[in-house]
Design a protein that fits this description.
By secondary structure, this protein is of the alpha/beta class. The protein contains 12 helices and 16 strands. α1 links the parallel β1 and β2. The structure holds nicotinamide-adenine-dinucleotide and serine.
Length: 319
């Protein structure tokens, strides 16, 4: 069992749920949630320790890691694809210098590190169907470039300094708790809010844009399972392909219509996000993750859609 865990990006789409899951599993006082701009509030602040650190501030990050005697870091702080494309210099600063600072603190204090890469680490030249674990990685976006560089940096810190850095290439993640933070796959969350509240959604991707996706409970389970796996079982370390389902906006709309028959969808294409989506795989091969650490998703398109609609509708009614 890890002694003490730090979660950067704890207020984000993944971080908010992962922090609570880690507290549930290992004990609330062992999991420190790191916020960025504001003091943390709500459930994150009420259920365990919190602090505020900009991950670009190496000294502040290192003081937190050593002061709190951290042994495991889940490093989630980053800018996502669409936001990064709008602010490439800032994206490079946060995504690369933040990770470098985390890896340096991990090297000094002997921490294990989780770094989430992305389907965005692929690009033109990558096989789009059954994208292999080890293949061409020439992404066309600044976000994807930071993800490939991040995977390589993690592997370097492992090889050179023995830092136990691990990670997955997440597809688009769908959650009913925290709205997404500016990615290309955000439509697959936005559509549920629109379906419940307006029975209509204007989608910013084309009807036939097939992408890999995953429901948040599976994403959380993947991170924890990989981090708990005996290191001797791992051939790869960072950048495991993982996926749970793949669909197009038209197929997701049809799945929602099974529950809300009057739901309608139109398409108002955003050229920036469409170009990003068009540069990503249609379906990743995640057999390495299945073989090396037993990756197995629970949710497919029908079960995710049913669960998402039920939980989000209840949440929106309470709000
Ligand atoms: P998010 O945008 O919801 O959250 C990002 C978090 O980073 C926020 O809490 C924000 O406050 C924090 N942050 C930003 N700049 C910071 C800084 N300078 N210092 C400290 N914190 C800072 O993102 P998410 O969806 O939770 O993604 C988390 C990680 O998972 C990212 O690395 C992302 O690239 C990766 N990922 C996410 C998805 C997805 O679909 N959500 C898919 C693949 C990979
Ligand atoms: N869901 C993320 C994005 O769209 C993929 O990393 O940016």
């Amino acid at each position: 069992m890890p002694d003490k865990i730090l979660v950067t990006g704890a207020t984000g789409q993944i971080g908010a749920e992962l922090t609570l899951a880690l507290r549930e599993r290992y004990g609330a006082d062992r999991v420190v949630a790191v916020g960025h701009r504001r003091e943390l509030s709500g459930e994150l602040a009420q259920t365990g320790p919190c602090c505020r650190v900009d991950v670009r501030d190496a000294a502040a990050l290192d003081a937190t890691v050593s002061g709190q005697r951290i042994t495991v870091i889940y490093h989630l702080a980053a800018l996502l694809s669409a936001v990064a494309e709008a602010r490439p210099m800032l994206a490079w600063d946060i995504n690369m210098n933040g990770l470098l600072n985390v890896l340096e603190s991990a090297r000094k204090h002997g921490c294990q590190v989780f770094f989430p890469s992305s389907v965005a680490a692929f690009g033109p030249g990558t096989p789009v169907f059954d994208t292999p674990q080890d293949t061409v990685q020439h992404p066309a976006t600044i976000y994807g470039i930071t993800k490939v560089a991040g995977e390589l940096l993690c592997d370097y810190y492992h090889r050179r300094y023995g830092v136990d850095a691990r990670g997955v290439r997440y597809p688009g993640l769908i959650s009913n708790r925290v709205p997404p933070g500016g990615g290309t796959t955000d439509y697959a969350v936005d559509i549920f809010y629109a379906a419940i509240e307006q029975r209509h959604y204007d989608c910013f991707l084309r009807a036939d844009t097939q992408l890999d996706m995953m429901y948040m409970p599976d994403a959380i389970a993947a991170a924890i399972r990989l981090m708990e796996t005996d290191a001797g079982r791992l051939t790869h370390r960072s950048g495991f392909n993982v996926t749970a389902m793949n669909f197009t906006p038209a197929q997701l709309a049809a799945a929602i219509r099974q529950h809300l028959p009057d739901f309608t969808i139109d398409y108002a294409i955003d050229p920036l996000r469409q170009a990003i989506a068009d540069s990503w795989p249609r379906h990743m091969d995640d057999s390495a993750a299945r073989a090396e650490w037993g990756w197995q998703p629970r949710f497919d398109l029908p079960s995710m859609t049913a669960d998402m609609l039920a939980h989000l509708a209840a949440r929106l009614r309470r709000a």
